[in-house]
Amino acid sequence: MAYEKFKILKSNCVPLPIENVDTDQIIPARFLKATERIGFGDNLFRDWRYNSDNTPKKDFVLNNKKFDGKILVGGKNFGSGSSREHAAWSIYDYGFRCVISSFFADIFRGNCLNIGVLPVQVSSGFLDKIFKVVFDDPKSEIIVNLLEQTVTIVKLNISEPFEINSYKKENMLNGYDDIDYLMNIKDSIKKFSKTTPL
Amino acid sequence: MSKTLFDKVWDSHVVHKIKDGPDVLFIDRHMVHEVTSPVAFLGLKKRGIKVLFPEKTFATADHNTPTINQHLPVKDPLSANQLLALEKNSELHGISYWGLGHEKNGIVHVVGPEYGITQPGATIVCGDSHTSTHGAFGAIAFGIGTSEVEMVLSTQCIMQPKPKKMRITIDGKLSKGVSPKDVALFIISKLSTSGATGYFVEYSGEVFRDMSMEGRMTVCNLSIEMGARGGMIAPDSKTFDYIKNREFTPKNTNWIKAMQYWETLESDQDAVFDKELKFDGELINPMITYGTNPGMGIGISKEIPLAKNQDGGIETYKKSLNYMNFDEGQSMIGKNIDFVFLGSCTNGRIEDFREFTKIIKGRKKASNVTAWLVPGSHQVEKAIKDEGLLDILTESGFELREPGCSACLAMNDDKIPSGKYAVSTSNRNFEGRQGPGSRTLLASPLVAAAAAITGKITDPRTLY
Question: pLDDT averaged over chain B?
Fold first, then answer.
């Protein structure tokens, strides 16, 4: 099932300089009860974003009008914990198309790539520079260029390369997903299934 | 060429390799539950396709099921709707469904091994990160996202780059009062929650050889908490004894044939790992966590580490202690607690209830403690009754609930109230994990039992 293509994204960003942001913070378990993929953005960072009476917490970055954009910038080890793809869905549904961090948890990274959110891993030094620039001027823009695999802080005119395997890169550029690929080799999968020991 | 246990199982399941991309990996067993599957089934519907191998797919309801009055309709309409969706999807696609009220119902990672769905050398996935549990049998087992659930339903394959390999060796004998949970929390405290990201772990050494299958499951279950995709232990006679004659394990000549494969499942002597770590089992103490991720654990008699000694991330560390309302340098022993939770895919097996009962036998539950004891499955529930453990629990003032994930992630009504402290045998102490504002202290069933009868953090070794 195709998703939105991703080539070059130029946007200002939302900074969240907290380490080990886990998927229970991104979307608490009590909001996982839907049977369709709709409305998850409303509960993105629910308990950091809202008080128990559903009023917004003023000091949380998503409630700070100064910051917006399609890029979320998080601290080291972003997305640890549960395999819930709902975490990636809520980030997407809120309007983000890219998450930048100095380190991602494994399953979260894979989930993002599978739904069209680009996880961009940068050095911790570069991440610090992004945070500084964005806190100094919330309108500072970042360019994420998937074709060239670079991320650029426009104001400082500095760039850093990032990694992505060429298969996933093609998928993101074209909006393909893995099932499209697997359906094409279904016959060889069926043949293989007869050779497995279990 | 020499291979690790992981290589042997992975390589024999690769259908196709993509240059500078993932491997197409064939999946032997797919476990499905109500929360991460409905959108995947919807995807199949949109594509107009059916589940490719329904006989390799097993569904159970566990995440949002109530743990009292399971015979009554589920009150929460959203949960009821998810359960109904799984029932309907299973029926439509011809998948075995062990729903609420079914005798085989229970937590997906507890029932899989109980019925022999989990086997050595198999590839097992489920839309749940604690699928790593099944690695205790020498299987490659890991959690996947919903897009991947849809992949496996439709093609019985997933696409993943082969992870790097790490071996964690722990030799020596564990001291009295030190359980598999402590071993796991100890390792995570050394590696942090991201120390094994990108790796698949093999546990080896005397400590794991000596462990029961239940203990091995606890350790493998927690592999994800140090970032690893999964963890596994080479199968041995304990493994084969455990799975023999279970409903879904091979019988007669098929057993003999399977054993020929299973007996090859160990890392070759000269196999090379990308990373090797060694610890001394004798130095491990009963553990408890004090912060908001599973890596923030210490020996129970130790003090909460100082912020200045943290390896970076001081602000995050302080935020965590602030959430817990703890101060650096404080002792954990003697802190008052409000709730005790015994259960989950980490510690909801019969052995965990035996350990818990050892401490509470002949003593009374502390009056300030609410205790939720939740068996991982109906089979565990039955064993608790058959072995006379329920009588001991009742005598001490405890009640037994019905099986499910329960307060581990608090999707049902089993929520720890805001600001309250819970000593939990589950797997995550993230902010709000057990209910908005809840404060979780992860520990073994022994530490949980000691807390339940004293009403505070207590070293279980003082109660033998």
Answer: 97
Name the domain boundary from B220, B248, B275: B275
Same domain as B84, residue B41: yes
Across residues A14-35, what is the average pLDDT? 96
Of B119, B293, B315, nearest to A22 by CB-CB distance is B293
**Residue A189 contacts B where some CB pair is shorter than 8 Å:** yes
- CB pair distance less than 8 Å for A168 and B21: yes
- What is residue A30's DSSP assignment? G
Residue type, B212: S
In a domain, B280, yes or no: no
Q: Does A188 touch chain B (CB under 8 A)?
A: yes
pLDDT in tens, A58-80: 999 999 999 999 999 999 999 99
Per-residue pLDDT of A138-167, as tens digits, reads 999 999 999 999 999 999 999 999 999 999
β-pairing verdict for A158-161 and A150-153: antiparallel
pTM exceeds cut of 0.95: yes
Q: Using one digit for the tens of pLDDT, what is the confidence trace for B294-331?
A: 999 999 999 999 999 987 789 999 999 999 999 999 99
Contact B246, B114 (CB under 8 A): yes
Q: Cβ separation of A85 and B145 shorter than 8 Å?
A: yes
Select the residue of B151, B193, B409 nearest A29 (Cβ to Cβ). Answer: B409
Strand partners, B279: B170
Would you say residue B304 lies in a domain? yes
Model pLDDT, residue A2: 59
Angle between helices A106-115 and A166-174 (to 10 degrees): 40
Question: Is residue B242 located within the same domain as residue B341?
Answer: no
Residues B299 and B163 in one domain: no
Residue A99 near residue A78, CB atoms below 8 Å: yes
- Pick the residue from chain A with its C-alpha nearest to B415: A30
CATH code: domain of residue B17: 3.30.499.10
**Is the same domain home to B14 and B57?**
yes
Q: Could you tell me if B380 and B342 are in contact, meaning their C-beta atoms sit under 8 angstroms apart?
A: no
Segments forming the whole domain that contains residue B207: 5-275
Cβ pair A30:B411 closer than 8 A: yes
Question: Is residue B363 domain-shared with residue B406, that is, in the same domain?
Answer: yes
DSSP letters, A5-24, are: --SEEEEEEEEE--SS-BHH
Task: Tell whether B283 is covered by a domain.
Answer: no
B30 belongs to a structural domain: yes
Nearest to A180 by CA among B47, B143, B17: B47
Chain A nearest-CA distance from B454, in A, is: 31
Q: Is residue A178 part of a domain?
A: yes
**One domain, residues B263 and B323:** no
Structurally, chain B folds into a number of domains equal to 2
Report, as an integer, the average pLDDT of B236-245.
Answer: 98
Q: How far apart are CA B146 and CA B356, in angstroms?
A: 35
What is the DSSP code (8-state) at residue B178? -
Instruction: For residues B172 and B76, state if they share a domain.
Output: yes
CB spacing of B145 vs A110 below 8 angstroms? yes
In the prediction, which pLDDT does A1 show? 52
**Which residues constitute the domain of residue A157?**
8-193
Calculate mean pLDDT across residues B433-442. Answer: 98
If pLDDT is split at 50, 70 and 90, which confidence band does A4 have?
Answer: confident
Q: A49: domain CATH number? A: 3.20.19.10
Any B CB within 8 A of A38 CB: no
B151 to A107: CB separation less than 8 angstroms, yes or no: no
Cβ–Cβ of B147/A29 closer than 8 Å?
Answer: no
Q: How far apart are CA A76 and CA B310, in angstroms?
A: 14
User: pLDDT tier at A107 (50, 70, 90 boundaries)?
Assistant: very high
Mean pLDDT on B383-392 = 98
Please give the residue of chain B at the shortest CA–CA distance from A83.
B129
Q: How much is the pLDDT for B260?
A: 95
Count structural domains, chain A.
1
Tell whether B184 and B37 lie within a shared domain.
yes
Are A83 and B79 within 8 A, CB to CB? Answer: no
> From CA A33, how far away is CA A103, in angstroms rounded?
29
